[in-house]
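Most newcomers find our protein records easier to grasp once they have seen one. A learned vocabulary of local backbone shapes supplies the integers on the structure line. An example says more than a description, so a record of this kind follows:
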Amino acid sequence: MPTALQEAGALFPKMSPSDKAQLLQWVISDLTNVFPGIEKLRGYAAGMHA
């Protein structure tokens, strides 16, 4: 049974450039939530309440 990655690899050459661009946007959107980074909160500085 093929993995999802193998299935995607088989479909990739059949995709149009616009389909590939849409896929890339979905991947980037999904990955941006993996490492949310540092949040800036109003009224707080250097980990202390200002």
The helical segments are 4-11, 17-32.
